[in-house]
């Protein structure tokens, strides 16, 4: 394929793409990638491998995700792309007024207020029942093994763990958060690099999820333990909220870009932002990657797409405009026309009435999975259900306290969600899964790796290794320290406020697997900014 050609990038960490025939798992932690490959070799398919990898990541990378988080998936199987939305809803009895009565003007980052129903366990069970070949008990064995037997903590994981510990030690002083420190810092500190980490409570919970196909978490013993802890400590979450929750199969959404279809999960996720930006950018022609006009137009398109997303994205039933209106050719042309020679102050438009851990898997049968899950903001809310290892997410932090906003806090509602899996097809055939995790960097990362692939013919590893930028707000843009200095200066002359960011993780962590349609050969790229690994067969 034409975009397999470029093998190097002058400003990137030199790494080579990985090739394989029978199967591939790409994710941010070596043990989790190997767990997925182990399942493939045992006769599982790409869906089984994705579940195994995802569950394993809750053990071996707890700084980014957990049992108490959400998940989304795009699954290519049996000639069709399927979308799964396993993001949880807010508790039924929460409201703007109820939160204000607690003394909050804004939704806090920590505690019970931002906690929503976790969706990740339901995603594992649903994917296993619908498309898996092996039992959930078999698929979760590697994760359970590492939880009980322990694993050596990697240097990057140790650094992020310690960063979180320092923040939590300063901010989470209430007894409500005691279990977090008991679970994740039992020695009064974060685990050091090379230290063996054990999570036996986590392992027991995973076994309970495996044996019950997730039922215990939502309508059984685990649900009751979550409910009782919430009740005892002033939480909004109840067993009724858990019992009424089920993941939702959704129709993926897409735009055409350079002859390919780029797919995302529909709102409440922010994947539509990436699609809106590509819908704007496809009206331009880009000859050079390292040219100020390339970056300028990318940044401007992202700003316009985010302005729309932050005003219009919520659960679909609350949205004023439909996906088709926001992704229409006509609206894309209108937004494209706003891009000039200098940086814009982004504002939302009004279409005429008429968008963490990421992993990718593929097998020799043609199945491919794009999967993402997260607790949000590292470990999440800071609440851990005693004796279970379940760290609850703080997804509700993204709700608005403005009752007139489409994403206003309300009971039983899904919030604007940052985590998004991506997928690419051509002529109704799969090319493969891709993703870049990292909060609001995600749609920006999607746009950058897709353009690197299709506009600049980079193979997956080169597309991921290329220096990244991130729009922050207004005209503020952060660039990696490897970003071309002369282009940063030229962008500043166009009115962008450029800041060089030394922390590489601020620019997301991605994975890509493409399939050559002629030979069936898989080609993968993994993140050089993390412990990224591809396990191949």
UniProtKB/TrEMBL annotation:
Keywords associated with the record: Hydrolase
InterPro entries: GGT-like_enzyme (IPR052896), GGT_ssub_C (IPR043137), Ntn_hydrolases_N (IPR029055)
A Pfam family per the record: G_glu_transpept
Coiled-coil segments on the chain, per record: none
Gene Ontology molecular function: hydrolase activity
Domain of life: Bacteria
The protein's name in its UniProt record: Gamma-glutamyltranspeptidase / glutathione hydrolase
The organism of origin for this protein: Virgibacillus chiguensis
């Amino acid at each position: 394929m034409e975009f397999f050609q470029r093998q190097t990038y002058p400003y990137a960490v030199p790494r080579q793409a990985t090739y394989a025939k029978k199967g591939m798992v790409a994710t941010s932690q070596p043990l989790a990638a190997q767990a997925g490959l182990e399942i493939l070799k045992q006769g599982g398919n790409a869906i089984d491998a994705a579940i195994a990898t995802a569950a394993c990541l809750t053990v071996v990378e707890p700084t980014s995700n957990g049992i108490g988080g959400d998940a989304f998936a795009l699954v290519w199987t049996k000639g069709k792309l399927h979308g799964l939305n396993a993001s949880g809803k807010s508790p039924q009895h929460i409201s703007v007024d109820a939160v204000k009565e607690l003394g909050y003007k804004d939704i806090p980052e920590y505690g019970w207020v931002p906690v929503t129903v976790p969706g990740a366990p339901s995603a594992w069970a649903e994917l296993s029942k619908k498309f898996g070949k092996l039992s959930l008990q078999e698929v979760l064995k590697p994760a359970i093994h590492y939880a009980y037997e322990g694993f050596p903590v990697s240097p990057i994981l140790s650094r992020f763990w310690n960063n979180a510990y320092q923040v939590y030690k300063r901010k989470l002083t209430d007894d409500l958060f005691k279990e977090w420190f008991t679970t994740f810092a039992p020695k009064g500190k974060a685990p050091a690099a090379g230290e063996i980490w054990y999570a036996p409570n986590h392992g027991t919970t995973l076994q309970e999820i495996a044996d019950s196909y997730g039922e215990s978490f939502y309508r059984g013993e685990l649900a009751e333990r979550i409910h009782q802890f919430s009740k005892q400590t002033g939480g909004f979450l109840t067993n009724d909220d858990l019992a009424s929750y089920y993941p939702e199969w959704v129709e993926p959404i897409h735009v055409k870009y350079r002859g390919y279809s780029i797919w995302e999960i529909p709102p409440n996720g922010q994947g539509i932002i990436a699609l809106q930006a590509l819908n704007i950018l496809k009206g331009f022609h880009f000859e050079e990657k390292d040219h100020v006009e390339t970056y300028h137009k990318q940044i401007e398109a992202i700003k316009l797409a985010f302005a729309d997303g932050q005003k219009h994205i919520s659960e679909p039933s609350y949205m004023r405009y439909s996906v088709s209106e926001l992704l229409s050719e006509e609206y894309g042309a209108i937004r494209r026309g706003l891009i000039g020679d200098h940086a814009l102050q982004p504002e939302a438009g009004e279409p005429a009435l008429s968008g963490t851990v990421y992993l990718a898997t593929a097998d020799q049968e043609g199945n491919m999975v794009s999967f993402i899950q997260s607790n949000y903001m590292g470990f999440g809310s800071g609440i851990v259900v005693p004796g279970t290892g379940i760290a609850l997410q703080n997804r509700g932090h993204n709700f608005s306290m403005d009752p007139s906003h489409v994403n206003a806090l309300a009971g039983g509602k899904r919030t604007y969600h940052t985590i998004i899996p991506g997928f690419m097809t051509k002529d109704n055939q799969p090319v493969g899964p891709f993703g870049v995790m990292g909060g609001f960097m995600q749609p920006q990362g999607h746009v950058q790796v897709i353009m690197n692939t299709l506009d600049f013919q980079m193979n997956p590893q080169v597309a991921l290794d290329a220096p990244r930028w991130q729009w922050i707000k207004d005209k503020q843009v952060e660039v990696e320290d490897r970003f071309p200095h002369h282009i940063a200066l030229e962008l500043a002359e166009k009115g962008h406020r450029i800041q060089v960011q030394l922390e590489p993780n601020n620019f997301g962590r991605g994975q890509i697997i493409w399939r050559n349609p002629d030979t069936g050969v898989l080609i993968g790229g993994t993140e050089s900014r993390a412990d990224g690994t591809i396990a191949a067969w």
